[in-house]
Amino acid sequence: MTRTAVYNDYNHPQPGATSTLTLDEKVSREISKNGIKRPKGYTVSYHANPEVEKMHFGPKHPMKPWRLTLTNKIVLAYGMHEAMDVYIPRPATFQELTEYHKEDYIEFLSRVSPKDKLDLEGKGILPYNMGDDCPVFDGLYEYCSLYSGASLDAARKLTNNQSDIAINWSGGLHHAKKAEASGFCYTNDIVLAILQLLLYHPRVLYIDLDVHHGDGVEQAFWSTDRVMTLSLHKYDRATFFPGTGGSDDTGPKNNANPGAHHSINVPLHDGIDDESYVQLFKDVVGPCIETYQPTAVVIQCGGDSLGGDRLGCFNINIRAHGSCVGYAKNLGLPLLVVGGGGYTPRNVARLWAHETSVCLGTELHPSLPSHTPFIEHFAPDKSLYPDLSQTGRYDNKNSDKYLRDIVASVREQLRYVEGNPSVQLQHVPPDLGVVREEVEREIEEERGRKDFGRRRRERGAGMRGEYAH
Fold first, then answer.
1. Exposed, middle or buried, 222 (CB in 10 Å: 0-12/13-18/19+)?
2. DSSP E strand stretches across 137-222
3. Which of 179, 266, 372, 419 allows an S-S link to 102, with CB 3.0 to 4.6 Å?
4. Is this prediction's pTM over 0.90?
């Protein structure tokens, strides 16, 4: 904002006021302008640890955790944090990570360093699928613990009835397997969070909006009827990662296996547009809800399905992507919202800020607040809703007939699904809260010694700890 603009806004300053707005005052004006307030009848929680934003995969790697910084700055600039319960979650513990992952794999992540990587590469034995896609970098284990801990914290807030919609944009790393890294993902926070939800919910529906197939989550719950996985993604078995998620990948082939028919895949071609995508989403999700009757929903909001993404191939705009989140929200079920892919950071940040507003039921002004940090990264339009459908546009190769056939195939698959699976014979994981209470008590004691001075330095414009050094 220029000095002239600030001065013109304040032709008649109040006694004792200056002609320059403080950050708190600017945010307060945005809250008023956008009508941002706490939702009536439900609670939204926002789970973000600023430490995860500092991680760096390497200068040439497409995964940029800095996109989380941009996201949080937009959320704060609009003042949306005032309408949510904001938490700085603790990192997941070793025991929590091994509720799904193999101990030897997590042990490896906890001790490997870039120097170890060079030594192992020299011997030709770099294990656990580590490599160019999943590099070893300084702080790798801390990174995994942070984003996984945030998803676990969000899931707990849902199961404790402290929240109705819980958001963790640092999560959504859906490719990680039980004992190996895959597709920029090391630990599968989604699986860990769903295991937590299953302590209290008999059936969880997982929805994946990433342009890549949610293979890691599907694989984790392949043989259970307590989780239904639904993934909408680009599919080409030969040329597009991970090469899985065809329409015939429906779960175990043996009908006696409880997981049979509980993997729903929606394979798409290049270039699908807003109208087709949103209608397809509704036509597929609606019958899944009606048939499966989930008691909680997890939605992965990968931003690489947007038009113009560095690794994507769709023509979807931010509002269309967000309308899918809105549809999930309107189901009225406990909802966990996580991030995922997305490799054009400015557009990912726009998307996740918009979808935060969708969760709050707020319509944001399309011009980004002028006090948004790093606003120059959103030039030239500095808009929340640029037209992405024409950015590196792909021809839409999804015919109306092809999409109708997908819907018909999903409906046929659902005919074999029982709406109320029996849960008494299914394995229920131990409550992760056993270790949680002791760790959180230690953390609170440490925070208590530092908290007074920190609170005095940090004002309402940001979340606790954001600017602390």
1. middle
2. 165-168, 204-208
3. 179
4. no
